[in-house]
């Protein structure tokens, strides 16, 4: 699979699949005059209104190809598989499965797979400084007194 498929779409939700995570390598993201192999954005397919998300895989020795920053978006990188190095503002540090990295919009960032197998990550980007105290899960969440329908 190298296209996102919709599982179900309703008034208040959208469910999609990008396929098996070991097949992310089959995607190619066209980005202007370059193509990024092994990367797919899913926010548009999900009709997400407050964030964007992408999966990306890097083969051993591969890096992200360029440093980049954002105008307004902060990013969270979740390393789901593999190991490598992450670079922000000239600092380089090791990352591996379970690592989570937050980068402010101005941070000059890139990553590299330094391991012997695939490096797989999930990146979520959202507008920086948009989350306020009243957005905390305790303040914003509502537990409903309705039965589950399993």
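-> sequence recovered:
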């Amino acid at each position: 699979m190298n296209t996102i498929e919709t599982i179900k779409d309703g008034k208040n939700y959208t469910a999609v699949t990008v396929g098996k995570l070991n097949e992310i390598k089959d995607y190619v993201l066209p980005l202007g005059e370059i193509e990024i192999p092994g990367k797919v954005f899913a926010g548009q397919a999900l009709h997400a209104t407050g964030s964007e998300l992408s999966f990306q895989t890097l083969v051993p020795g591969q890096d992200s190809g360029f440093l980049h920053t954002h105008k307004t978006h902060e990013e969270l990188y979740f390393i789901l598989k593999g190991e490598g190095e992450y670079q922000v503002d000239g600092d380089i540090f090791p990352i591996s499965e379970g690592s989570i990295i937050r980068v402010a919009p101005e941070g000059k960032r890139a990553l590299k797979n330094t391991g012997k197998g695939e490096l797989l990550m999930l990146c979520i980007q959202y507008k920086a400084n948009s989350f306020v105290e009243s957005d905390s899960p305790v303040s914003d969440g509502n537990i409903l007194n309705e039965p589950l329908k399993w």
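DSSP finds two helices and twelve strands in the chain.
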